[in-house]
């Protein structure tokens, strides 16, 4: 379980970091060095970082994602996820809240912003997989 959580968190952290870098204009969304399947174009994916839904809790969602993925990685590496109560429950709760937020953000992508952002859905899928791993991994 820890290895899978680390791998999922690394993938999520990469997506979140890319979104943060675009949000803060550290890189262009279509930078040539970014693999073509990850590049955002100005009219669709890159426009998502400017919507109200991109800052649900005042800071960019991608920054919250970075914190979440780093927390999952730390928990997996240091054994906190499998540690004594209430630590495992707090990871599951945080992960469940992330999935619930992802459902709302997916709704907003489809019906409010009308954008099909593959990277957004990838990160929501990663969050769901982390949640499933955390729940299934319980004794």
Textual characterization of the structure:
The protein is mainly alpha-helical. The protein has one domain (2-136): VKOR domain (de novo design (two linked rop proteins), Up-down Bundle). Helices cover 64% and strands 0% of the residues. The chain has helices at 2-23, 45-48, 61-78, 87-112, 118-136. Helix 4 (87-112) packs antiparallel against helix 5. It is globular, with a radius of gyration of 15 Å. The N and C termini lie close together (12 Å). The mean pLDDT is 86.
Percent helix: 55-70%
Which sheet architecture does the biggest sheet show?
none
Rg result: 15 Å
Number of domains: 1
Cα separation of the termini = 12 Å
Q: Report the average pLDDT across residues.
A: 86
The CATH architecture assignment turns out to be: Up-down Bundle
Secondary-structure element order, as H and E? HHHHH
Question: Which keywords apply here?
Answer:
globular, mainly alpha, 139 residues, 0% strand, de novo design (two linked rop proteins), 64% helix
Secondary structure elements and pairings:
Blueprint: H1 2-23, H2 45-48, H3 61-78, H4 87-112, H5 118-136
Helix pairs in contact: 1-3, 1-5, 4-5
Quickly describe the structure.
Helix content is 64%, strand content 0%. By secondary structure, it is mainly α.
